[in-house]
Amino acid sequence: MTTLEHDASRGRVRRSRPGSHLDALESHSIFVLREVAAECERPALLFSGGKDSAVLLRLAEKAFRPARFPFPILHVDTGHNFPEALEFRDRRVAELGERLIVASVQDSIDAGRVADVPPGSSRNRLQSVTLLDAVAEHGFDALIGGARRDEDKARAKERVLSFRDALGGWDPRNQRPELWHLYQGEVGPGEHLRAFPLSDWTELDVWQYVAREGLELPSIYFAHRRLVVQRDGMLLAVGPWVQPRPGEQVEEATVRFRTVGDATCTGAVRSDAASVEAVIAEVATSRVTERGATRADDRFSESAMEDRKREGYF
């Protein structure tokens, strides 16, 4: 089987031979998934409908099929999601025949667990309480997610198995060594771990794997026409949670999204990349990570992600 790689010397996409780095990444990720399933009693796999979690689902298929997944699928829903991502989430889980648990930030607000944000603001920070409540309610001792080290400085500090204390907090100085890919999955009462099988993958690796496996993704990852407004140096999609402010002009532009999150803080990029091959060529020449370029909650503070992770954020 071949895969798509970018040939920087010629500025084009070429096909690589079998046994590429994608095979090594895939093999290690499957190993991590199986280790977590073997070591932990009640894991869950996080799935948002985004590209990284779509890859994670395919890896779980390869790790455990034809049996059912040894864990449910969990989504922490901010209530500010792109409808394309939610439609893909529900359809993909139904195709797999797996169990989906939706932990709702709106439910946390209604229960008085957190205070809602002003209209047009991101609910990302509120996810921590909702996530930790889901961990407590279902007794999860491990959460498996698609975070990658190249996304953010705080992500780069993570171990493949990242341990959280009884309050869900993360201390980057109190993590276990993982020399030679040896992992220790034991947790104490009240503690749990976050597992990151895609830790060593890059955005380009993810897209090359999408191409190799023929994976479907939500349509917003590809170039399309959309009404947007420029705010804080980003193009935000006009919709129920993003409306133009005084002085802002709405325009219809050809854009795509590199990452999918809370619609109030996830920006689009101008792009004509309407196919996987075109996206691969575009990503290969980018010098800014997808979060650094298009996520307002990370761009304006170097410690934003790390602060949220210390509070229990994924």
Question: Low-confidence runs (pLDDT<50, min 5 residues)?
Answer: 1-16
Q: Main sheet: which strands, in order across?
A: 5-4-3-6-8-7
Order of helices and strands: EEHEHEHEHHEHEEHEEEEHHHH
C-alpha end-to-end distance: 34 Å
Approximately how much helix is present in the residues?
A: 25-40%
Q: Provide the number of structural domains.
A: 2
Using the coordinates above, name the CATH class of the largest domain: Alpha Beta
Bin the strand percentage: 15-25%
The CATH topology label of the largest domain is Rossmann fold
The CATH homologous superfamily of the largest domain is termed HUPs
Largest sheet: 6 strands, mixed
Q: Rg to the nearest angstrom? A: 19 Å
Task: Give the count of helical stretches.
Answer: 11
Nearest-integer average pLDDT: 87
